[in-house]
Amino acid sequence: QVQLVESGGGLVQAGGSMRLSCAASGRTFTNYVMTWFRQAPGKEREFVGAIGWSGGSTSYADSVKGRFTISRDNAKNTVYLQMNSLKPEDTAVYYCAARVPATMNYAYWGQGTQVTVSS
Fold it and tell me: What is the per-residue pLDDT for 29?
């Protein structure tokens, strides 16, 4: 069992930066690909990026590539989403999720944290 708790959201001006954290409980944190999603009001949830168990493999949505960076600290059971050059269209609730490797099974989800980017 893994519990995920996001933090670090809030209000930021366009062009600013913010770092989200996702703290995981449980001893099997390294078993999962950690993924960030976001959902804006009235829109479907969308993939933001993911990081493999060792941190050596990352992938990003085109909309955030070059601006967002995912990292993880397995010793702290935490995954991070560093967001730079934020745009108003990045406004959304951001969720972290734990995916079982080699599957599309997102076994665990956090409760989400709101990010609002003002223009």
Answer: 79
